[in-house]
Amino acid sequence: MSPRIGVITFPGTLDDVDAARAVRYADAEAVSLWHADADLKGVDAVIVPGGFSYGDYLRCGAIARFAPVMTSVVEAAAKGMPVLGICNGFQILCEAGLLPGALVRNEKLHFVCRDQWLRVENNATAWSTRYDQGAEVLIPLKSGEGGYMASQETLDRLEGEGRVVFRYVGGNPNGSRNDIAGIASENGRVVGLMPHPEHAIDALTGPSDDGLGVFFSALDALKPLATTA
Amino acid sequence: MARVVVDVMPKPEILDPQGQAVAGALPRLGFQGVTEVRQGKHFELEVDDSVDDETLAKIAEGFLANPVIEDWTVRRVEA
C-alpha cells in the first residue's frame, strides 16, 4: 500500500492542490485534511502548504497554529511523523513551535516571485534524502514575508547541528539570516522552507522537476513503517 | 470593564524594513530631522474586571506578539 500523505487546507490556503499533485507524482496517496478537524485520518506524513491562512491577519501563521488540526500535527510530530511546511506552512510551523525562529517581511518590502537556486545543505532529513549533499536545485520562491530571523544563539545551534536544509545561492532574495531558505527540527523529521518544491515537479509547469525529490524523500523516510505494516 | 492597551514592537536587533521605508519617505515629503522610525502594532482590548494581569500577559506573549521577534507591553488605561 502506498504511503498516505495529508495536505492541510486552511481558509486562505492556496497551494494545497499543487502539494497534493506533487504527492501523487511521488506515487503516494494524497489525503485532504481540514483545518477545523483534528482528525489526521491515519496519514503517515503531513504537508502544511503555502498560501495566506486567515489572510495573514495578526502575523503570518499566528492564527493557523491554533487550528484544531495543528494540535494533532504537533502531537504527531512529537512521535516522529514527518511534517513539511512550505512557505505559509513554514511560517505556521515556526509559530507552532515545531521549528525555531520566525519569518518577517522581506528586506526590500517587495513580494518576491521568481525561480530561485537553492543549495541542499543537509540530505539526511525526512524530506531531503533524495538529493546529493551540496546539490543546487531550481525552485520557485513567491513570498512577501520570507525573511528568516532567529537569535544568534539559535542560528549558531542550527548551523552547528547541520539543521539548515536549504540555503539560497546566487543572492539572498529576502534578507534571511545566513541565507537560510529551509531548516529542520532536531530529529530531522520536521522541515520548513520558503520556496515551493511542489511547483517544480514537472518541466511542463515549472522551471524544473527539482522539487520532486522532497516528496520522494518522504517515501524513503516512511519505508520502514510501510514494510512493517 | 477596563481598557487594556497592548503594544507590540519589533525587537531592536530585528530588521524593521517597514519602519525604514517610512523613515526613508519622510525627507521626500519634506519632513527633515526624523532619524529613525520603528513600526509596531497597537491593540486595544475591552476586558472584564475578572481578567487579571497574568492572563493579559499570556494573551500578549502567547498570541498578540511573537517573542522570537517582538517585544510587548501591557497597560491598563482609563476608558
From TrEMBL, chain A:
Part of the FGAM synthase complex composed of 1 PurL, 1 PurQ and 2 PurS subunits. Part of the phosphoribosylformylglycinamidine synthase complex involved in the purines biosynthetic pathway. Catalyzes the ATP-dependent conversion of formylglycinamide ribonucleotide (FGAR) and glutamine to yield formylglycinamidine ribonucleotide (FGAM) and glutamate. The FGAM synthase complex is composed of three subunits. PurQ produces an ammonia molecule by converting glutamine to glutamate. PurL transfers the ammonia molecule to FGAR to form FGAM in an ATP-dependent manner. The lineage of its organism: Bacteria, Bacillati, Actinomycetota, Actinomycetes, Pseudonocardiales. InterPro entries: Class_I_gatase-like, PRibForGlyAmidine_synth_PurQ. This is Phosphoribosylformylglycinamidine synthase subunit PurQ. One of its GO terms (molecular function) is glutaminase activity. It is found in: Cytoplasm. Pathway: Purine metabolism; IMP biosynthesis via de novo pathway; 5-amino-1-(5-phospho-D-ribosyl)imidazole from N(2)-formyl-N(1)-(5-phospho-D-ribosyl)glycinamide: step 1/2. The keyword Cytoplasm applies. GO terms for cellular component: cytoplasm. Its EC number is 6.3.5.3, 3.5.1.2. Coiled coil: none annotated. GO terms for biological process: 'de novo' IMP biosynthetic process. CDD domains: GATase1_FGAR_AT (cd01740). PROSITE patterns: GATASE_TYPE_1. It comes from Prauserella flavalba. It catalyses: L-glutamine + H2O = L-glutamate + NH4(+); N(2)-formyl-N(1)-(5-phospho-beta-D-ribosyl)glycinamide + L-glutamine + ATP + H2O = 2-formamido-N(1)-(5-O-phospho-beta-D-ribosyl)acetamidine + L-glutamate + ADP + phosphate + H(+).
From TrEMBL, chain B:
Pathway: Purine metabolism; IMP biosynthesis via de novo pathway; 5-amino-1-(5-phospho-D-ribosyl)imidazole from N(2)-formyl-N(1)-(5-phospho-D-ribosyl)glycinamide: step 1/2. Keywords: ATP-binding, Cytoplasm, Ligase, Nucleotide-binding, Purine biosynthesis. It is found in: Cytoplasm. Pfam families: PurS. Transmembrane segments: none annotated. The keyword Repeat does not apply. It comes from the Bacteria. Its EC number is 6.3.5.3. One of its GO terms (molecular function) is ATP binding. It catalyses: N(2)-formyl-N(1)-(5-phospho-beta-D-ribosyl)glycinamide + L-glutamine + ATP + H2O = 2-formamido-N(1)-(5-O-phospho-beta-D-ribosyl)acetamidine + L-glutamate + ADP + phosphate + H(+). GO terms for cellular component: cytoplasm. GO terms for biological process: 'de novo' IMP biosynthetic process. InterPro entries: PurS, PurS-like_sf. Part of the FGAM synthase complex composed of 1 PurL, 1 PurQ and 2 PurS subunits. Part of the phosphoribosylformylglycinamidine synthase complex involved in the purines biosynthetic pathway. Catalyzes the ATP-dependent conversion of formylglycinamide ribonucleotide (FGAR) and glutamine to yield formylglycinamidine ribonucleotide (FGAM) and glutamate. The FGAM synthase complex is composed of three subunits. PurQ produces an ammonia molecule by converting glutamine to glutamate. PurL transfers the ammonia molecule to FGAR to form FGAM in an ATP-dependent manner. PANTHER family: PHOSPHORIBOSYLFORMYLGLYCINAMIDINE SYNTHASE SUBUNIT PURS. HAMAP family: PurS. Belongs to the PurS family. This is Phosphoribosylformylglycinamidine synthase subunit PurS. It comes from Prauserella flavalba.
